[in-house]
């Protein structure tokens, strides 16, 4: 019995030791503390931190000081705010519409009165050339709203390099529109907030006001800006369209002709916008789509780039059977028509207006009337044909007839230099029905990066019609020519300035702000964002693509900048449908530095902007729905004394906000002294009986003064605690309290006295501080170490020992957060504290060998994003601030697998990636015939063909386009290859603490050894204590990163799958003008460029004949 009793007594102990590892566990030769012991350590650390920080920061004191004021709580009604924002947008946009309409009327009248001068020369026309000011010098003065040196008395004219300045049409157009400067000036005088006013002529010149030097290139002779290729111009010049591009890849296109064809297709794709749909197919003896797109897709930047990539891969072979390509195109339209009619699950895909076929071929004489009679009688699909190449031996009559009998247009593209201009030939044809209708519409472009440095913007446009001849819309004599498109700009900053996004503005209609974590955003009918906090700023866009103004709109969808959940999909649809509503949902929110993820209940209030395709929304977190109505109880002079009276050893900072009139437009550059001086002047200017400030925002100032008074008492509390018990401030470098009203107090002042002016300015605005903003989402103390983005070992010295920052929001009634307390911690003292706590085991027995004092046991403190806050490893101190996965990826993965950390990812479609050098493999040089087998294997044939093809196109460029045009055309052809960075997709990753798991442990197995680890949350903080053994040499550490990265090939978002499941959009169907019975089709073909240069042609043919004989 004794033996049995002994066994029964021992078994439970053995069970605890072996199975649970209660005391310790050993693996890889190292004793590791038990899970229970690690949990005890974390509890002891938590207790020590909370006790110390509560006393040192005075968080309860701040709460008491505010609540005893008994300020009434006021609901921040997002629905009311967003309606005010919508009204302000509408007022702003209406002013721009009036200005644009004035320009349109003046231009139509000016063109109508102008008599064309066929003998005009350049010296006859007086105008300011934006690229060459020598003809008409002007004094330019810098104006901040234009970010340029300008002259507001004149406009400037820009003419693309590939258009001759002395062209008769160009000179007549400039002379006819010189009088428009008067309207430009009148508009600007009525609305000083009006930015660039301009119009793009259908002939190619661009006139903008005020006059400024053209700044798009350092070499004006290589300027490639053609206004007719801009998205806003093409959008205004024609109705939406479905476009099928057919590429002739028969053997006769072999070589240079095919290369010109490819560049032509690229440029044709560039003329399409987000309201258009497109697909591309190749044909020779058969026909196939070039990509995985099974039907037409929206012509956004990503889809067009994929099509360009596939076109680049095309090679030539076989013979051209046009009926194969045409049938492929017509059947694609029929299939898409069925999809459009069905609404594709009510997603509103397709233009439902123009249907267009663009054919790129080197020519042909096939009679395809039977095909057109089968598929296109009466004409519902226009056909445009571009004959590519200089080979006069390939006939063009058949392909010309295709265009003329299908209400399209036939054009010649004889060299690279002709690509840019000629691929625009289809646009005037599509504009005819709209011109003949006599109707005009205001349109808003997608956002894009301004050519002259004003940042991201949208353009308001309206077309200009030729009103000469009869104006009766039923008359066949009415002119069907579009003259120009007029535009003016509204920057996203203009829109943001109408939103109480961050704080009230002086004399604003808003007396409430949506708080530091509230934000506004706008989207259009395609769901693309107009403004959003995660829309890349101007500098970031320029870093992404170095092509400046040549870049297209970013086409960023609302669901691509926020984590997609069903509730947000519904929100997006309702905003596109221009509904007014409010909804609340629990959603993940990414921190501004993209390192952390918070989950919060967000309330979205949204409405639409009348007469536009825009909708606007305001998003408010739960803690931003209520605020105190803070009013000063004392006199302004008394309260101001609390603001300016110096407090011993305390530094006061005031946020650089627009408190007073003199601060407007200076946000971010206002010092605390500037603000106090302005407020003092405002108080002094008060009339005897007045109690409301006139030159400052009374509400903002009174809130500021109340915050200054209360935080003064907080600073007194800090000094008193430190005087009574200095040990409570051991390891604390400085204390801070920051308020909703813009006040920050720092103690002791000896610390900020050592800061530079730039460091003080960076700390001045609490709403811009991560310590302030991250604290708002939790009731815990939030720790943060200086970010080490690369994970590299930083030097451990005084310059590296940047203090840890810890902050905590002061939560009050109705979840109001009016202040955040913070402390800067000495990392040495912090390390001594938490490592020292691990020396004590159960019953307070100390054992340094089984603690973090022993560096054989690796101990880390990580924050809620997985970044290292502290470690016991002496050789790892330089990695503090790094993502833990870089240092120990195997353990980070296991922490994720055990849901100690969770991971969420998002695709960043605004990213930049270094361009990979392309390998050889482009198509060979052009041949005039289908290569035979002997040709293919004969190197001499290839070499001669290459030289001959290049020589022919070189000579044609030189003879007919000029040397400068030749050089710029090849720059244009290589745009796709030129930039160092390219737009790409990266995966953004955020790790965050798993829900409900306080303690966890695991075992990492490897080939010949294994590693144990323990983890325990440190209560009342955002910290996690991780204890593990050293890694094995046989187990190479896998690096796990948190920074955004380009996905490996085959991973990441699949554009083919995305095309099968397009997002909801709204068509601009009310603006459809596809055909008009009064259209004239007499002019359906461009004359070959060679016909106007007969003598040059004869000379060239003679030269080629001589060269042929010599070879």
From TrEMBL:
A GO CC term assigned to this protein in UniProt: voltage-gated calcium channel complex
What residue stretches are annotated with the VWFA domain?
242-427
Species this chain originates from: Patiria miniata (Bat star)
Task: State where the protein is found.
Answer: Membrane
Keyword set, alphabetical order: Calcium, Calcium channel, Calcium transport, Disulfide bond, Glycoprotein, Ion channel, Ion transport, Membrane, Metal-binding, Signal, Transmembrane, Transmembrane helix, Transport, Voltage-gated channel
Gene3D superfamilies (alphabetical): PAS domain, von Willebrand factor, type A domain
Q: How does it sit in the membrane?
A: Single-pass type I membrane protein
Stated name of the protein:
VWFA domain-containing protein
Superkingdom as given in the UniProt entry: Eukaryota
Query: Where would you say this protein principally sits, based on its record?
Result: membrane
Single GO MF descriptor:
voltage-gated calcium channel activity
Pfam families, sorted: VGCC_alpha2 (PF08473), VWA_3 (PF13768), VWA_N (PF08399)
């Amino acid at each position: 019995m004794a033996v049995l009793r002994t066994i029964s007594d021992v078994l439970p102990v053995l069970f605890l030791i072996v199975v649970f590892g209660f005391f310790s566990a050993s693996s890889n030769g190292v004793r590791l503390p038990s899970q229970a012991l690690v949990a005890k350590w974390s509890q002891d650390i938590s207790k020590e931190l909370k006790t110390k920080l509560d006393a040192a920061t005075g968080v309860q004191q701040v709460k008491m000081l505010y609540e005893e004021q008994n300020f009434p709580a006021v609901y921040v009604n997002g629905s009311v705010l967003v309606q005010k924002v919508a009204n302000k947008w509408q007022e702003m946009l209406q002013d721009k519409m009036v200005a644009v309409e004035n320009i349109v009327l003046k231009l139509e009248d000016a063109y109508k009165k102008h008599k064309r001068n066929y003998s005009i020369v350049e010296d006859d026309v007086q105008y300011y050339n934006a690229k060459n000011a020598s003809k008409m010098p002007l004094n330019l003065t810098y104006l901040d709203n234009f970010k340029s040196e300008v002259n507001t008395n004149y406009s400037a004219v820009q003419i693309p390099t590939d258009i001759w300045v002395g062209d008769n049409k160009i000179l007549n157009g400039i002379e006819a529109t010189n009088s428009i400067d008067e309207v430009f000036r009148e508009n600007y005088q009525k609305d000083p907030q009006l930015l660039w006013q301009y119009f793009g002529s259908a002939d190619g010149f661009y006139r903008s006001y005020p006059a400024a030097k053209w700044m798009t290139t350092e070499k004006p002779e290589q300027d490639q800006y053609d206004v007719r290729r801009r998205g806003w111009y093409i959008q205004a010049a024609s109705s939406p369209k479905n476009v099928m591009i057919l590429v002739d890849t028969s053997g006769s296109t072999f070589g240079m002709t095919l290369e010109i064809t490819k560049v032509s297709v690229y440029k044709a794709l560039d003329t399409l916008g987000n309201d258009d749909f497109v697909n591309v197919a190749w044909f020779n003896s058969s026909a196939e789509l070039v990509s995985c797109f099974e039907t037409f897709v929206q012509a956004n930047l990503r889809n067009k780039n994929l099509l360009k990539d596939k076109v680049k891969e095309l090679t030539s072979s076989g013979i051209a059977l046009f009926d194969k390509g045409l049938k492929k195109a017509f059947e694609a339209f029929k299939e898409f028509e069925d999809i459009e009619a069905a609404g594709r699950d009510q997603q509103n895909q397709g233009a439902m207006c123009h249907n267009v076929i663009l054919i790129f071929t080197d020519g042909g004489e096939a009679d395809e009337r039977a095909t057109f009679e089968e598929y296109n009688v009466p004409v519902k699909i226009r056909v445009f044909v571009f004959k590519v190449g200089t080979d006069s031996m390939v006939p063009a009559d058949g392909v010309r007839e295709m265009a003329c009998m299908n209400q399209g247009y036939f054009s010649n593209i004889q060299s690279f230099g002709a690509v840019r201009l000629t691929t625009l030939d289809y646009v005037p044809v599509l504009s005819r029905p709209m011109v003949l209708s006599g109707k005009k519409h205001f349109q808003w472009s997608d956002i894009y990066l301004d050519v002259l440095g004003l940042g991201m913007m949208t353009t308001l446009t309206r077309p200009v019609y030729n009103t000469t001849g009869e104006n009766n819309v039923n008359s066949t004599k009415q002119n069907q020519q579009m003259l120009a498109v007029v535009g003016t700009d509204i920057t996203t900053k203009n829109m943001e300035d109408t939103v109480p996004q961050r704080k009230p503005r002086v004399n604003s209609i808003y007396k409430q702000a949506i708080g530091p974590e509230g934000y506004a955003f706008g989207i259009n009918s395609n769901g693309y964002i107009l403004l959003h906090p995660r829309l890349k700023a101007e500098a970031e866009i320029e870093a992404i693509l170095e092509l400046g103004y040549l870049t297209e709109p970013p086409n960023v969808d609302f669901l691509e900048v926020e984590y997609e959940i069903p509730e947000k999909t519904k929100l997006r649809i309702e905003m596109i449908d221009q509904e007014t509503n409010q909804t609340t949902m629990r959603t993940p929110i990414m921190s501004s530095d993209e390192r952390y993820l918070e989950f919060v209940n967000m309330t979205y209030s949204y409405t639409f902007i009348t007469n536009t395709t825009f909708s606007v929304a305001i998003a408010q977190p739960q803690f931003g729905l209520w605020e105190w109505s803070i009013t000063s109880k004392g006199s302004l002079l008394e309260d101001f004394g609390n603001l300016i009276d110096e407090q011993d050893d305390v530094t006061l900072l005031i946020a650089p906000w627009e408190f007073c009139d003199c601060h407007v437009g200076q946000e971010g550059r206002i010092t605390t002294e500037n603000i106090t001086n302005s407020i003092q002047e405002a108080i002094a200017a008060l009339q005897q009986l007045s109690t409301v400030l006139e030159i400052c925002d009374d509400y903002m100032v009174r809130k500021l003064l109340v915050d200054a008074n209360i935080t003064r008492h907080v600073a007194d509390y800090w000094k008193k605690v430190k005087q009574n018990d200095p040990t409570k401030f051991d390891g604390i470098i400085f204390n801070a309290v920051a308020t909703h009203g813009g006040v920050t107090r720092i103690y002791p002042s000896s610390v900020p006295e050592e800061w530079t002016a730039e460091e003080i300015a960076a700390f001045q605005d609490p709403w811009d501080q991560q310590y302030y903003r991250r604290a708002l989402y939790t009731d815990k103390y939030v720790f943060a170490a200086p970010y080490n983005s690369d994970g590299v070992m930083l030097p451990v010295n005084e310059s590296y020992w940047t203090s840890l920052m810890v902050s905590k929001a002061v939560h009050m009634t109705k979840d109001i957060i009016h202040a955040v307390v913070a402390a800067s911690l000495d990392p040495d003292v912090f390390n001594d504290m938490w490592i020292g706590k691990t020396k004590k085991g159960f019953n307070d027995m100390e054992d340094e060998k089984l603690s973090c004092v022993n560096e054989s046991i690796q101990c880390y403190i990580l924050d809620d994003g997985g970044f290292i806050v502290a470690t016991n490893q002496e050789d790892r101190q330089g990695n503090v601030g790094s993502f833990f996965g870089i240092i120990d990826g195997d353990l980070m993965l296991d922490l994720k697998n055990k849901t100690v950390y969770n991971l969420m990812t998002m695709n960043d479609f605004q990213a930049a990636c270094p361009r990979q050098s392309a390998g050889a493999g482009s198509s060979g040089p052009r041949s005039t015939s289908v290569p035979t087998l002997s040709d293919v294997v004969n190197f001499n044939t290839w070499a001669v063909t290459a030289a001959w093809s290049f020589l022919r196109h070189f000579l044609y460029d030189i003879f007919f386009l000029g040397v400068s045009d030749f050089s710029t055309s090849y720059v244009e052809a290589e745009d796709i290859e030129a930039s160092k960075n390219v737009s790409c997709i990266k995966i953004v990753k955020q790790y965050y603490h798993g829900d409900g798991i306080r303690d966890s442990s695991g075992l990492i197995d490897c080939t010949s050894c294994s590693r144990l680890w323990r983890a325990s949350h440190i209560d009342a903080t955002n910290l996690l204590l991780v204890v593990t053994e050293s890694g094995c040499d046989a187990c190479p550490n896998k690096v796990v990163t948190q920074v955004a990265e380009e996905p490996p090939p085959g991973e990441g978002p699949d554009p083919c799958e995305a095309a099968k499941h397009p997002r909801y959009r709204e068509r601009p169907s009310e603006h459809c003008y596809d055909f008009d019975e009064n259209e004239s089709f007499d002019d359906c073909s461009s004359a070959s460029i060679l016909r106007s240069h007969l003598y040059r042609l004869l000379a060239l043919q003679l030269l080629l004949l001589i060269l042929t004989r010599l070879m």
